[in-house]
């Protein structure tokens, strides 16, 4: 194990008790100051970002990724506002969620506490640095951030500024730390830092998440990939179905809550697909359709097995005609990544069966999957969208960054 | 990857949707039948257990472990009663815990669902087979059980009987499966079966748990080891302190919620330790004391660094005199395994600081640590005691074996 990761882990663990016991005003004061320090350092951040942008061709980074990497004064302002929004959220730490008495007269309460030390491995977007750091800090956790090499200078400068703020508030700078070595070797060591990390959250491509899943012995919250579907039932309002499919596919195809495949009940295929074809064309969406559906799309291509498995994250939609609700549910449970799934129907029974039987973090009736989001759900924040079943499932707000402990008040009880 | 583990994983996954959607009466009927089938098969179970007992010397199993391994008609009856108690518990599956409306008019509910497929790796005690299987079944989960080689025939026969019950109830026998190869190699494969297992719960020795923690890429719930403390404050009721220490140490030393070390405030050492010495002697507890405390124990031995780190699980108590509450809290947070910790005090401030600052799943004021137990806490069941912070912390009842999903009712909402 490299000294780097062990040192970061030890330093975090050393201050984690202090962090977990900070009062809400202490945390909020520091968060507001972080926003202020960011605003006071715009030229410094832009200069660091410029160094990353200059290196981008060397790393063979695609233009869409360069857009994610690029910071502007406006984007830095958004980061500062984001931190202020986190300061404004209700602090879950310290809340005793329930309290009860046992027959022996013990009073037991379940109290919300910080997790301890959180590792975040992420790619490209430097705004994850301030997002993740502020959410972890608000919940009394230490965070160790490991960004990609392509945003190295931006991330490091942002963490420097956050640490300067902590010191200015008489708080330990080890609350927010940065992994200054972006090698795969050190990332793998971070994934196995079981003595110091309470949880590891990867944020990025499917490739990153799969690598973490296969390598990490630290507890992981798997986030992100969404191979999502809309099923257009035989009892669907077809106008509504067109709107939902277009929204879920084309409003922002690059995000994890967009859809990749639609399943259309055979009874409505003949009415629905021509309506949809017009709108898909308007939105420049490429169609990969099965043998039944292909006839409605003059420039569509025939779908292959790979299409059902792929998270395109692009203006591409796979289309399959199914003969029953069961066939739709089976297709979804076989190919989906347990993220977000929707049915469009006016059948009460179909809606209930879909809600019960589809296995996903968020299951919708008559709405776009694009709502799977911590802000849209009303959590006021989002550290990611969990696609696993342990600890947290679906959009994760502050609560997902906490644990609990039992506090027990007795008056001399011993066990018989 | 061996075919064995992949086959078990695939078979479980195939039936897991059916399991998750069983109604409460369907599950309870099957559970009651399992108890009945156990009672009808006592001679068959005892015969299998006899085979294990005959092999025990070959595996070099200690007498205390042989007692854990041995089944009797009475112990089998206890297993049957245990299953009936699980049948009587409230079923958490299907409950919608909260439901709210968003500004866009979506109605979002958080519904309790099964985790899916649970792996259990355990040692020695065959009763874990029926305990774990019944709790997983009650919560709509498939379970794959991997017991130790020392209880192979007992475990296999118990699973055979549970599977016969499932078939008699027209339910898939793949809901409860047994790993028939007890090699380390296959256990390691189970720990990495990320495609099929939603969670892995180890139950057994610290060695087993450490191995799982270091090897598993499947999400793990760490259970068990308890290096626990009682701190006797300067403001303690000393009679109460003696009773609590004796109970926590000597009532049942082999369990994880017993204590291993006590910390005594220097101001009360002179009054407290002689009182304690008498009672420890009565209970045949060996003392490993620091240089200050050793004078009160004529046949005590001097404590070493190793004593503070050791979970004795035996009639041995380490004793250290501390000069302040801070020193006690620092000792505990440094050496403990985050399980159960207690303070004896009449100081309000000391009690509050101890509850807030000690990092453990269960923190007690004026009570024995022996109450850390799902039954004592009122959960009606226990699958283990989690010493990690993710997903579940402390005694785990049925709720720890569940996940949630968001169900969303819309009427055509799309995202702007």
TrEMBL record, chains A, B:
Q: Source organism lineage?
A: Bacteria, Bacillati, Bacillota, Bacilli, Lactobacillales
Q: Which NCBIfam families match?
A: PRK00197.1, proA
**Molecular function terms, GO-annotated:** glutamate-5-semialdehyde dehydrogenase activity
Keywords (A to Z) from UniProt: Amino-acid biosynthesis, Cytoplasm, NADP, Oxidoreductase, Proline biosynthesis
Q: Which reaction does it catalyse?
A: L-glutamate 5-semialdehyde + phosphate + NADP(+) = L-glutamyl 5-phosphate + NADPH + H(+)
Q: Which InterPro entries match?
A: Aldehyde_DH_dom, G-glutamylP_reductase_CS, Glu-5-SA_DH, GPR_dom
Function summary = Catalyzes the NADPH-dependent reduction of L-glutamate 5-phosphate into L-glutamate 5-semialdehyde and phosphate. The product spontaneously undergoes cyclization to form 1-pyrroline-5-carboxylate.
Looking at the record, the residues that make up the Aldehyde dehydrogenase domain are 10-291
Protein's name in the database:
Gamma-glutamyl phosphate reductase
The entry's localization annotation reads: Cytoplasm
Give EC number(s), comma-separated: 1.2.1.41
Question: According to its UniProt record, in which pathway does this protein act?
Answer: Amino-acid biosynthesis; L-proline biosynthesis; L-glutamate 5-semialdehyde from L-glutamate: step 2/2
Protein source organism = Enterococcus alishanensis
Give one Pfam family.
Aldedh
Q: What class of enzyme is it?
A: oxidoreductase
Family note:
Belongs to the gamma-glutamyl phosphate reductase family.
